Each structure stands twice: as C-alpha cells, then as structure tokens.
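My current task is to audit a protein record that another person submitted. I need someone to confirm that the token line plausibly describes how this chain folds. Take the sequence as given and treat only the tokens as open to question. This is what I was given:
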Amino acid sequence: MLNFSLKRLKESHQGSWIALDFFMLGLLILNLALILFDSLYATDLIRQSLNQLTPALLEWYKPIHANFILIDLVFVAIFLTEFILRWFVAVKNKDYLRWYFYPFIHWYDLVGCIPVGGARFLRFLRVFSIIYRLQKYKIIDIRQSAPYRFIAFYYDVFVEELSDRIVAKVLSDAQDDLRQGSPLLEEITTEVLAARKPIVCNWVASLAVHSGHSIEDMQAGSTLREHVRQSVGRAVRNNSQVSALKLVPVVGSGIEKMLENAVTDIVIQSVINLLTDVTPEKIDRLISHSIASSSEEDKLDQEMLNVVDECIELLKGHVSHQRWKTRL
C-alpha cells in the first residue's frame, strides 16, 4: 500500500507541481507506448500480422510511422519545456548552491529527451523522479509496499555480501603482512607514538608538578602526609640504632620523637621537591634512556602481534556472518 495522504499534499503546497507530474506521467506513458508500438511496427512480422487482422489500421499508421521522429520531437519539446521551467523555479528558490547544478542532479530527465534510439526509453526514469518527490513530501509512503521491501532486501543482501568480501580480503592481507614479519609495532612506536611524545611528556610533567603542589598544601596533602608520617614512624621505631636512643635516660624518648618528625618532614619535602622539579625535558630523557631493547621486549612484541592477529581473525569471523539470513 502506498498510503496516499491528501492532508500531506495540502500541507506541502505542491499541488500544482504534483498535478503537472501526473500530466507529464500521462504524456510519458503515451509517448512510451507509441515508441514501443512504432518499434514493433518496424518489423515485418508485425506488419504482416496487422495486414491480416486490420488492413485499415496498417494503412492509417503508415504516415505516422514515416513521420514518427517529428511526432516524437513534439513530446521532446514538451518534456524540455517542463525541464526548463523546473530549472528556472529551482534557481529562483535557490534550491541548489549553484544555478547549473540542476541539470546534473536531474540528468535522467535530460538524457531521456534525446530523440535517438534506446535513449528514448530512458524517459521511463521520470517515473522514479515523480515517486521520489511524492515520497519526499510524504504524500505517499512506498517503504511499506511489497515491491520496495523486496528491492530493499536484496539490495541490502548485495551490499552486505560485497562489503563483507572486501573487508575480509583487506583483513586477510593485513594478517599476511603481519605474519611475514611486518614492522607494525615499530612503525606505531616511531610514527604514531613518537610524534606525540612531547605532548605525553608535558602531560606527565604537569601531572607531577600538580601532585607536588597538592602534597605541599596542608589541607589537600593531609592524607599523604599522614601516610608518610605513619610509614616513617614505623621505620624509625623498627630501626635498631634509633631504638637504642631509648636507653638514654630522660631525653631518649624525646630525641627519638624529634628524629621521627625530622625524617618525616625531610621525606615529604624531598617528594615535593622531586615532583615540582619535574620538567618535560627530564621526562623525555627518562623515557629515552629507560627503554632498551631486550629479548623480553622482543617476546612482548611477538605476543602483541599474535594478539593483533587473533583479533583480526575474530573480526573476520564476525564480518563474514551473513546477517541477512536471519531476516528471511
């Protein structure tokens, strides 16, 4: 069902254009019928059959057949007039960015006006332009019609099968490249990560400096300060040499407490200084000198390639799944 909506037709303010569409559709059907009949009339078999059935019709149609090109040019003139009228209105309404876009977008209407050979039958494409305009303004709804669903389904099947095979071929080529020793990880490191290393270094440095200032703040860094104080306290108390201070009469415990507080303050201030002194250049040097090639790193690279290969294999299996079969 096309679900023709008279209400939508009124709201679209396209009534005159739709009427023109149907008028042109009637002319188109008449023109195509004449073209088809004239093409059949040109064959000896049809002429002989007409001569046996209705000799009068054969004689009546002879002058039409002889001057058919002129009759067809009348239809072409009407079609071109309608095309130019729509072009003028499109330019006036600024429907397209450039005035000369219209003939390129509506090429099917223009090509159908060629009064030569098989190009005449391309006028049938005008039917689809009319249906498109009716669908555009929601005057009809062809999406629920059986022909549309049939065509849409098999179009989706074709596109899915074609795209699946292309994607699977691309993934298979990538797998073969990896299995033959592709320097993928090295290229990622040198071409992708290396280009972003300054940004990463700046981020790490700013994060370290921000952390240092947060620890330095008495309120924001209270949690970390307390944790360091407890850790240092346990370390000091468990140290045999510091514990010996307790043996000193009267002042032993006080000295131990003072030493614990001093060490705690020194550790916290050292951490703050370490973090606030971090610069992107120091992070860059640290990264450059800390990463060295080793057999373990080679094993890790190989393992990463295996992970990528297995992921591609799983992706191929997912892509190759024919989802359209579940819709049947």
Remarks:
- The chain is about 75% helix and 0% strand.
